Amino acid sequence: MLALLVRLGGILGLSIMAALIKLASERGIHLAEIIFWRQFTTLPIILAFAALTTGGVRQLATKRPGAHAMRGIYGAIGMVFNFGAVILLPLAEATTINFSAPIWAVILSIVLLKEKVGWWRCSAVLAGFAGILVITQPGGSHIPLQGALVAMGGAFMIALISIQIRDLSSTEKPMAIVFWFAVLSSLCALPFMPFVTKAHTGEEWLILLGIGLAGTWGQLMITAALRYGKVSSVIVMDYSAIVWATLLGFLLFAVLPPASTFVGAPLIIAAGIIIAWRERVVSKRRFADLRDSTSI
Predict the structure, then answer these.
(1) H or E segment at 50?
(2) What is the pLDDT of residues 95-147, one digit of tens each?
(3) Directed axis angle between helix 65-88 and helix 174-189, to 10°?
(4) Coarse DSSP helix, strand, coil percentages of the chain, rounded to the nearest 5 percent
């Protein structure tokens, strides 16, 4: 229960961040500047948190700078797509298409990891893409095709990055992964700052600060949830994002999703749940086979 509540709090933080990104864009703040302040704000928070916990700032040290550099590049590209989707699309639609990340993860596992995928996950992939087609309605949708493609690109990057994080997590602590990603992605955005930065009002600075605080809060809570529960158990809370996105979209932008979103969203969500469940079943089977082989 604690893991579920912590994960729910983390998803709320990321949903608030998305709403503030959209607000910032409507105030004329450039995407590169939003990305920079989102990541740069994370650095003092992580440093202070690390200093106050067991191990101090030494726990941020790494022996794999190359892997972190690749994570930083991919992560920066992913933020361009995911933040861009929030800017181009209504919050609910951007969030729903973002749920297609597990679908892309299955495809990547086939292509990159040469993993064999059964009919359960294949069916889930087809159902997920059907949900995307229902929402985007190519040629006749209420949302721009460019925005839909950007959102799907963001979901693809999430899936690709998840493979990187899985590899990094075998040797690196979660706090170190978050810290070095913030450092490197801030450096990626920094060269654009002289060309895109403009004078801000006090309210705009509060929005930028809120983006950084809400994003860091969400990242840390999502990571902390995995200390108290398994991924397959807590991931169901991720789908609460559609509730927060719909609510925040209505309260801040007076926008409610059309019927097509409520038809397509369950297909995408069901696909993600089936994929998570099936991966749990497969991992249990592999563990049982390994245990049996070692006991012989």
Answers:
(1) helix 42-52
(2) 888 888 777 877 777 777 677 777 777 888 888 778 887 877 765 666 788 88
(3) 70
(4) 85, 0, 15
First-to-final CA distance of the chain:
38
Q: Cα separation of 35 and 3, whole Å?
A: 29
- pTM for the structure as a whole: 0.83
Tokens of 196: 């895109």
Identify the DSSP state of 184.
H
Any idea what the Cα angle at residue 214 is, between residues 49 and 94, rounded to 5°?
140
Lookup: tokens for 26: 């409507």
> Residue 109 is encoded by which pair of tokens?
């596992």
| Residue 238, CA distances (Å) to 4, 111, 225 in order | 10, 26, 12
Listed residue (93, 72, 194) closest to 137, CA to CA: 93
**pLDDT tens digits along 57-101:** 888 888 888 888 988 899 899 999 999 999 999 898 888 888 887
From residue 261, alpha-carbon distances to 11, 21, 144, 215, 235 in Å are 20, 22, 14, 25, 21
Summary mean pLDDT of the chain = 83
